[in-house]
Structures are given as C-alpha cells and as structure tokens.
Amino acid sequence: MVGFEKVANGTKGSLPSAENTNTTNRSPDSILNLVQGDPTVFEPYWRNQGDKCSLVISGSDFMSYYSDCENICWFLQPQLADAIRNIHRDVGNAVLDGRHIVIGTGSTQLFQAAVYALSSPAGPEPISVVSAAPYYSRYPEEIEFLSSGLYKWGGDANTFDKDGPYIEVVNSPNNPDGTSRDAVVNRVEGRLIHDCAYYWPHYTPITGAADHNVMLFTLSKCTGHAGSRIGWAIVKDIEVAKKMIKFVEFNSLGVCKESQLRAAKILETISNEYSNLGCTKTENFFEYGQRLMAERWRKLREVIKRSKVFSLPEYPKECCNFSGEFMESHPAFAWLQSKGNMDAEKLLRSHKMMGKGGKYFGVDSKYARVSVVGREEDFNLLLERLSAIKGVETE
Q1: Strands, E, within the chain: which ranges?
Q2: Cβ–Cβ under 8 Å, residues 353 and 32
Q3: How many CB atoms lie within 10 A of CB 321?
Q4: Rounded to an integer, what distance in angstroms lies between the CA atom of residue 206 and that of residue 208?
Q5: For residue range 75-126, what is the model confidence (pLDDT) as tens digits?
Q6: Contact, 172 vs 184, CB < 8 A?
C-alpha cells in the first residue's frame, strides 16, 4: 500500500510544492528526500509513449454519480474493470475468477475499507490489527487515526498472543524490506488482508497467481501513476466486498471517473504492448521496469559493498513466470542496516539524506528505509552521498 508520508517534523501535514520537487538545479548542500516512494523513475518511459495514453474528455462527459448499476461496485467504470482483469491475466499475479473488484481512491482508502469490512459488526471490544515487523509504517498511523471503536492497532504479529478474533495485514513483497511474506499468527479466528502493491514483475519474480480473500493493488506501484489516485481490491467474499463498497460510498461517494478512465487507458496500453511482444521492437513496460530496477540495484549494491558502513538484504533468485527467467527482487525501497548498531536515520541525515528510521517500522534504529524509485538525478545523488560515508568516520 502507498500513502503520502511525513518527510520531516517541520513539514508535518504539508505537501511539497512543484518547485520543491524539481531536482534539476539542486544545490550541493540541499537535503535529498528519500522518505517517500514517489515513483517518478518511470517518467521517461511514459514520456516516450507520446499520445498513446491521451484522452479527450468533453464538458458533458461523466456527469452522473453512477458508472455501472449492474455491478455491485456501481461506481467502477467498465473500461477499468476490463483493463484490471486483462493486466492481471497478462502478468499472472492474481486470481480473478469468481472475485469482485472494488475500486478506491488509491489503496490507502481500500485498506481502511477492508479493515472496516472485516471488523464490523462491532464486537465487545475493538478488534486488533497486526502486521509482522518490519511493517509498513503507515499501518499503525491509519489504524489509530480515527480512534475507531471497531478496531485498534495490535502491533507486531510475531509477538501477538491475544485470544479472540484479529486482523492480520500481510504485505508481500513487504514494504520496507522487500521480502516475500506469509501470514504469521495463523489462528482460526484470524481475518487476513493481503497488501500486494509491489507484486509486479519490475519489483519481484512472479512465482504464481496470488489467491487470497482480500488483495490490495495500486496504480502507483504498477505503472508509476501515483497522482491519479487509483487502487483496486480483489475480494473473494461478496459480503466483504459490499461492506468495502459501502465504506467508499460513505467516504467519497465513489471514485473520480476521469482518473478511472486514465488508469484504464494506461493499463490497456501495457496490455496491448504485451500482446504484440515479438511483433515490434518496442520494449514492454514491465520489461523496461525489470531492466531499470535491476540496473539501479546493481549500482546500489556496488556502492554499499565499498562503503562498509551499511548492508542490504539478500534476495533469492526465483523463476519469474512473467519473464521466464530466474531473477531476484529489486524493491522500490532499499532497507539499509548500519554496522555497529549506529542510528541509520541520523547517519543518513548527517550526510544530507532523509531516510525513514527503523522505529517507524517497529524495529531497531540501526535500520532505515530509502527510496530508489525517484528521478535519475536523485538516484545518482543517493549513490554519490552513500559513497561519501566512510567506515572510519562513523566509528
């Protein structure tokens, strides 16, 4: 799942302006913000697509609240529903037969909808929501934000021992450390949400079609179009799907049709390219993404190996059903571990880099997460500043 994250104590609740996110004229003393997973890495690919994803919308289009009254998710545009089914069919990363698609304003809204659906009707006390550490830092924030009487944050799933019903969030591949995950608690009264935001072939090998009761996906991590704010849930139980739809209805009375149509056009473009593989010299988006992320991780590992200050997780090579090749994961974030138990976030900050420390993910401060899906100039500056950190000075 993706959400906008606080980047500094002094900017709490504020968004960076377009001027502040322009890195072309960055000064040598400027702070490199690596807290957010803003997927601008894919901008060059989409720029090269020209008008393939262009849409013309007239003033009289999309004036009704309703999209498809024969669908239980009545605000889901049929074109987007078809595009979602096609992209999962092409990639082979999720089972959709007999499932219901629920659309949301990003997967952040759908996470809240899923927690609501699985925790209602209310029990004698709020149901605990847990996730194995290191867990996505926004889970506890979003669970506690409304002080709901339906649910509460229950912490690390690895240490959860409370009797009764619970909700476990399984983030796989996991944000922040990129590892593949399974449920940890595994009790009869458990209800599961699988956050599959990063289960796409440019981040990880596709080893099979995910088949879970509630699965969350997001356009921002699939194609890089974070600003369109489109997410979707694939739900097995129709009653759970109805509750999630009701949550979105009360929360935002549907989802922007213009964003849905743009998302559909983008996904259709990828599916059309996939259908033409071998017929043209054009590189499919996921092939492009695999190559780009593999190259970034190769460079990053070289720098980390030379620095002798940080270490990175190792990922097993697995056969990717999409590419037909053995590959390892190339996550959107680098999960850095400092040597000698130094505070990794403070160490990065002392070299003008902002990462997010381990405490936000339920683990030790020797860990920090940094984004590797920013623009090329930001990534090169990350490599440059990491190279400047020497083991002798940190002692």
Answers
A1: 32-33, 100-104, 127-131, 151-156, 166-171, 190-195, 214-218, 231-235, 310-311, 318-319, 326-327, 333-338, 353-354, 356-357, 367-371
A2: yes
A3: 15
A4: 6
A5: 999 999 999 999 999 999 999 999 999 999 999 999 999 999 999 998 899 9
A6: no
Structure tokens at 90: 């092409």
Q: How far are the Cα atoms of 232, 353, 355 from residue 6, in angstroms, in the given order? A: 24, 15, 11
Q: What is the DSSP string of 30-95?
A: S-EE-SS---GGGHHHHHHTTTTT-----TTTT-SS-S-TTSSSTTS-HHHHHHHHHHHHHHT-B-
For every residue of 359-374, DSSP letters joined together read GGGTS-TTEEEEE--S
Token pair 């743009």: residue: 262
For the stretch 315-372, pLDDT in tens is 999 999 999 999 999 999 999 999 988 999 999 999 999 999 999 999 999 999 999 9
Q: What is the pLDDT of residue 29?
A: 81
C-alpha 340/C-alpha 180 separation (Å) is 27
Determine if the peptide bond prior to 140 is cis (ω within 30°): no
Which residue shows structure tokens 């690390």? 156
Binned at pLDDT 50, 70 and 90, residue 280 comes out as low
- Tell me the residue type at 385: R
Rg (CA), the chain: 21
Residue with tokens 């129709």: 238
Least confident window among 26-35, 362-371, 377-386: 26-35
Tell me how far apart the alpha carbons of residues 37 and 220 are, in angstroms, rounded to a whole number.
10
> Per-residue pLDDT for 394 more than 50?
no
Q: What is the DSSP letter of 1?
A: -
- Round to whole Å and give the CA distance between 370 and 34: 5
Q: What digits encode the pLDDT tens for the residues 222-232? A: 999 999 999 99
